[in-house]
Amino acid sequence: MGSVDLIASCIDSIRQIGDEIADSIVYIDAGTLEAFQFIGGFPLLLELGARAVCSLENASPLDAAADWQSSFSNPPRKIIVLTSRLLSDAHRYILRCLSNHGTVSHCTVLTAISEIGHSAYVDSPLGTDAFREYETLLIQDHDELLKKYEKLDRHKENIHKTTSDFTSDADDYSKWGSGVHYGSNSESSPTKRDFFDDDMGQVEARGRRLSVAARHFPMIFSPISSRVFVLPSEGIIADSSLSNHHEDSLGPGLPSISTGKPFDSDEVPPGVTLTAQFLYHLANKMDLKLDIFSLGDTSKVIGKLMMDMSSLYDVGRNKRSAGLLIVDRTVDLLTPCFHGDSFLDRMLSSLPRKERMSSNSAAKNPQTPSKHSQGTIKRSPLDIKVPFETIFSKEEPNIRSSVLSEGFMSFASGWNSVDVDSEVSWLPDYADKAHDHVLGCEFDTISGSFLSNCAGVHYLEALLDRGAKDGLVLIKKWLVEALQHGKLSSASKGRQGATSVSEIRSMVQMLSRDQLSLLKNRGVIQLALAAEMTLREPQSSRWDAFTSAERILSVTSAETTQSLAMNLKLKLESKDGERNKNSSEAAPSTDDFDDEWGTWDDSDNTDHQKEEAYGDMQLKLEVRDRVDQLFKKFHKLSSMRLRNQALGEGLAALSRFETDGYSRKCLLYKLLLALLSRYDVPGLEYHSSTVGRLFKSGLGRFGLGQSKPTFGDQAVLIVFVLGGINTLEVREVMTAISESSRPDVELILGGTTLLTPDDMFELMLGSSSFA
């Protein structure tokens, strides 16, 4: 069998629905948009025959005009919707799409959530037969909407008849123009003919019933590379709660602290159920037969749910064996909080992100409160923005303005296929608006995943295991290759030594002088500009300061408890001495303070002073409560090894894989080295399959027992961190594989989201926490 490739699996799944995509308008929501940017799905959709690819949340009647196939012969008859959310959440957007296109007679809805996932989600109104229920619901709502429009049309016709004697043929024609003109030869414009054809298509579509098909499409996730993936930040799985609000929970975006206590079936958070569904269907799509292991209380629940979904048919099929390890993020909270030496980690923390388009489902449905809808999770989208205006020199704005205006003129005249050279007198002059803030933001930034060049270099995958300096050197190498390919000379060509940001900048400007070169090398130029933003001040100094402070804390944490206690005692004594000294110096002022006791009742400022004193005291009490809550959380985390003895023994056993006391390694690095070396890790639980339980309980009595598999024995390994991963973990996991006795193993690393130190602050102490 071939190697495991996440991007190839996603592309194959899209090709399997090519019949539905052909000759249809494709609508994708924000989560699917993020996922398709990473796999390069938009050219594939157009290759499969899509008329247009549009945003579900920003649907418009003009979406039908953006026909990439350039047919314009027939109005759209079908639409296909891909959503990463529940059908009930996407329903209003789907209904809006149908109302925008009156000629559509067939609608296909593909959702990342299975029928079982819809029925298990507390806030979902759909049951076990969710897809059929939704098909009926959408048809009913669409029919009601059509009836409402027909009533409005009859009302308009009655008004039109009463005023027919006072209208002219020109006025009757103006309802089609509505103030929009298409140049000198607007009579022959193909766009206007489409308007008339579209109206006839609406009459034809209203005569027959809408057909709807809802199906499951599980391959909606964000593969950062062929072996690393996260869930879409605006999808329902990443947005759903991973823990309920109780004493052992930190926030809805993180699993609860592992205490060893079993979960009640009624207390399983919705995010846990949806994650189990996703992993199960992902393995099925990739033809993998899983041996499931878990580390952490919440991960054990996911393992049990996946085993309950398995069957004899799933296990007995001719599939490739793989090991799945699910790990709670709360078992190792320090790693994503560190500012490590990772180029992509710095980039994600420094660059601006796209604003979220969709809100949390709990906020959308206030009429259906749930005990699981406590707290909101605001995952940061991975859709980054890189400013492109900086690559142009200061002398070029006027040239850019004229080119921009000419581009608008050419685009507008292109609507008229009969006379391309016709003048467009109605077009306003956009040259003066080229530097307007709103228009400038659209043209000066580009968002989305980093592109790959024509040679097939995947930039993100190549930078995953790079530090800050190595990443900059690699970007310089790509820039030099692009300059050589374009036969452009560079002053830094062949120069040895450290790579500077100014050197990268000069090469980017050389590649951007020609429009053809700019378009051809847009991927590496975008990456170079992102590196410049990441490594310039004050972002670079801020990151280095955090790194130095964390390194000092790591070194001091290796000291004994007695030495730390002694240092704290000395510091407290010195502070106490300074406080006594200051109080003794301020002692003479107490006489004046005592003299004011008799005049307080007569003072006009007494009430104001009391209000200020009350406000100060209230603020102090609030700060003390917040600090008390913070230290309670720290106490719970530090006592996790004592409360969960098996997990504590396992974490202590993994300490043998620390290289030295000055460079801390993440939990996944040590865990993989231990499992690939076939060590037993206390606290790691194996979830037996249906066949395994049968052999163990039944046929095992006759000597046909099945031995317990080992995670490190599998040829394909999948590690999923419930709560999220960061790029430093990706780098160290790759290092662990290369240092192990099995460097040929195929490892897939996944997580709920891609975390940065700022994200961890929000999840533990900020707006996405229970604090």
UniProtKB/TrEMBL annotation:
Biased composition (Acidic residues): 591-604
Polar residues bias (residue ranges): 358-377
Coiled coil (residue ranges): none
GO biological process, one term: vesicle-mediated transport
Start and end residues of each stretch annotated as Disordered: 355-377, 575-612
Source superkingdom: Eukaryota
Family indicated by similarity: Belongs to the STXBP/unc-18/SEC1 family.
Protein name: Sec1 family domain-containing protein MIP3
Organism of this sequence: Miscanthus lutarioriparius
Lineage of source species: Eukaryota, Viridiplantae, Streptophyta, Embryophyta, Tracheophyta
